[in-house]
Amino acid sequence: MRDILVKLKYICMICLLLSAVSIFDSDTASADELSTVKLKVGFCRLDGFFEYDSNGDECGYGVDYLNEISKFSSIHFDYSYIKVKSWEELPGLLKSDSIDIMMPVSESVKALSELSFTTEDIMTTYHAIMTKKNRGDLYYDDYNSIGRMKIAITKQLLDYVGMKSYLKSINVYKNLVYYDDYNECKQALDDEKVDGVISNVMDLTDDMKILNKFSVSHNYIVMKNTNPYYKNVNKALTELKLAEPTFENALNVKYYPDRINTPLGKYEENYLRKNNTLNVAVYDDYKPISYYDKKSHKYKGIAVDLMDKLGEKLGIKFRYFAINTKDPYDMFNSTKTDIVLPVYVDDLMYYKTKSLFDSDINYITKSSYGTLNDNARIAVVKKYKYISDCLKNKTKYNIVEYDTIEDACNGVNDGEVDAFATSTYNAKFIIQNPRYRKLDIREFDNISLPFGLAINNNSILESALNKGIQYITSEERKNIIDKDTAYKWSDLSWYDKLYSYIDILSFVSFILVFAVIGTLIYINSKKKFIEQIQQKSDEAIKASRAKTDFLSRMSHEIRTPMNAILGMAAIGRSSTEIKKKDECIDQIIDSGNFLLQIINDILDMNKIEQNKIELKEEYVESMDFVGSIKKMLEANAKKYNVELRADFSKYRSFLIKIDPLRTKQIYVNIINNALKFSNSGSYVDWIMEVEDIDEKLVHIHCVIRDYGCGMSKEFQKKMFMPFEQEYNEFTNKVEGTGLGLTIVKNLVEIMGGTIECESEPMKGTTFTIDFDREVHSIDEAKRNSAVKPDESILKDKNVLLAEDNDINAAVAMEILKAHGMNVERAKDGQEVVDMYLKSAQGRYDVILMDVRMPKIDGMQATKIIRNSSHERAKSIPIIAMTADAFDEDMKRTMQAGMNAHLTKPIDIKMLIKTLVSLIHKEN
User: Fold this and answer.
1) Nearest to 160 by CA among 213, 114, 195, 200
2) I need a surface site. Which of 9, 16, 19, 66 has the fewest CB within 10 A?
């Protein structure tokens, strides 16, 4: 009776949880729905990608992908599918706005004008040589038979990158038959005018098979350039790829399982054709894995059903009979057994396949039993050798053997052993029996049991079965396991069934108690639940407003310099006065630098939020460092008509270990703010002081003081928060993202320092920065006598420029030629490799390498050059010039073998400085 009460208590708790879920659903159903946008999708029927289900509705890989994309968008996409007969109709419909989306589109047609490709692809396919399934004389990767085939190919596909060279390499180029489109190729195959076709694997149909795979191809969603929802679709696709990296693989397994698996080879097909019925030894009493059903006189269970599915995939049949030897492997000696199933995959005896299905080893013990110790007595069934072998290999338990499962369970009930070890599926089947209600299932730590097939020394059969196992999809495997492990009333004896009715009657006697308790809990939890929902709603509204405010602010900040750039460009272009053009160019440069500052601020904030800021510390000369900053800022001070008064009287010359870029960013950010917020004709004080701590450590004290508009007390509380700006008559005239002080504070703290601020409206602001740094003493004579290379070293030096963008190339060439350098250009990665490897010794002094280029990217090109036999391949300076600005990008270029990493837009001074340094170093 006590056991019944415990069960009813758990049932009541479950019912209460279900009630809470229903309450939550009803209360959240009123949430605001997303706005909906209708998008028209070009629908050309394509096997697996665009099809119709039994109700005539659109389905397939593409439909599932679009539906998933909509889940990651801030607006809901309502798709309507526009049917067409051929893919060739789609580009015209897209350009005429008859459809919004065309997919899938191969990267090989990216040159289509007026169209925008998504940044991320939606499908990776490959090209293949295919033939009819009934061609029993042709086999996968059998190059002898492939070389004798007449193969149809379209003229357009023959021009695909690398196609000709690959077909020549496998000796089929001379046997090609050319057609205008794929439909003609397929018709020729159906009419037996050719033996095979070459096309994208997307054209594979049920009556065809693959003979050879090659040339991976990426496919994208394409929309018209002017479509206002392209950015929404593109952004949602990117977020989907990041959030669900296995989504595409799941679609491939669902719709194209035959295309991701390796086909059978010649010897495997011939073997299975000659031996189309194989003898399989299985256990006849190991429910639900394998057992003999006396009613149907058939073998059943997970292992048997999976074997039948495997036979279906391979086109063969299996004949089952019982394992009747103590050691299952002895079946190979006493009978004409081809396969023994199931066996432990990690056992080294005989040939083994990959896992047909996986299980864990669980143990059944009394509910009151504690944790197993090393000396625990564990029951196993003698005939299930793989269980005892696995435990002996991985544990120190004392193994006790029993003849049957029932004897082992009784041994646990009677206290003869502490637990009974068996597979998860068998353990769950046992526990369903009411007779074992006082027993529990528990898990061993990290003891898995992959079930495979043992084969009698036949490597060809092993290979064929392994491939067949791959053909079984995860969904097929799951359906079989779910079916065979489902609870069946017919499995219970009359005693078990009677005991089940007693449990039901006991439950009914407590239902009224549950109803009363449930009602009380509902009333108490309803109020709390409503409060929680209101709180979450308030938080969501606040987050939405913050996001909207950020987007609005960034839109304004980016559009302002962009408007100046475009406006000055138009004015300069129309003006005939040289002075006017120069003024416009100066304005364009200033606006471009401001736009770059905005982008850099946003990137820095992203790094800070993800804790990815890394300091690149080095020793620099202290006075030179602050002197260069002062010189740079004096130009800004003149622009604002403000005097920058620098007091370095209590500073001195030494070598200080800092990150020069980030430290300069701190000083420049605060001093620039002081200049901007000062009245014309006033001044800004910058004081640097140093105090020795010991021989290797000093304390740096920096004070920056202005006498401008100051800040209110309220704003000072939040001035270091992202995007915060104080608006008044003075500050409204000043541009900015509101990120500068946030970045400064984080950088100071990363460096182990502190920053403090004192400010009063209309009187000014004082920032104080303190931190400790490592130092080295410096010999002034040696420092002053150090010879630094100058720009004259660049004269008549030869540059190999790798840049696919014509405008970027023109800019770089003009800069280099202005410094007396000779420039030769390569338009893609393959060309730069060819030009360098064919060049004479000393032909080029340096290589400027773009990273993202056609054919071969810059990093791959660098690796090829570095690994080549060219005399200067290891030493020639290679400089990356790329728009990839993250630290991870810089690490990748360095790992590829480049000497320096410059980000676009290129800083001319940094480019020249880098060239001078590397050329001088190599010389």
Assistant:
1) 200
2) 9
Residue 590 falls inside a structural domain = no
Residue 682 lies in a domain: yes
Domain of 725, CATH number, reads 3.30.565.10
- If pLDDT is split at 50, 70 and 90, which confidence band does 78 have? very high
d(C-alpha 240, C-alpha 860), whole Å: 28
Which CATH number belongs to the domain containing residue 833 in this structure?
Answer: 3.40.50.2300
Is the pLDDT score of 3 beyond 80? Answer: no
Q: Which of these three, 457, 491, 525, is where a domain ends?
A: 491
Please report, rounded to a whole number, the percentage of residues in the chain having pLDDT higher than 90: 35
Q: How many contiguous H segments (helices) and E segments (strands) does the chain have?
A: 31, 35
**For the chain, percent of residues with pLDDT exceeding 70:** 83
The secondary element (H helix, E strand) that includes residue 521 is helix 511-574
Instruction: Specify the number of domains making up the chain.
Output: 3
CB of 845 within 8 A of CB of 814? no
Question: What value does the mean pLDDT of the chain take?
Answer: 83
Query: Is residue 11 exposed (0-12), middle (13-18) or buried (19+ Cβ within 10 Å)?
Result: middle
What integer is the mean pLDDT of 464-478?
87
By the 10 Å C-beta count (0-12 exposed, 13-18 middle, 19+ buried), 83 is classed as exposed
Question: Do 723 and 830 sit in the same domain of this protein?
Answer: no
Residue at which a domain ends, from 737, 755, 785: 785
**What range does the domain containing 658 cover?**
618-785
The pLDDT tens digits for 427-454 are 888 888 777 878 888 888 778 878 888 8
Give which of 323, 262, 316, 260 is closest to 289, Cα–Cα: 323
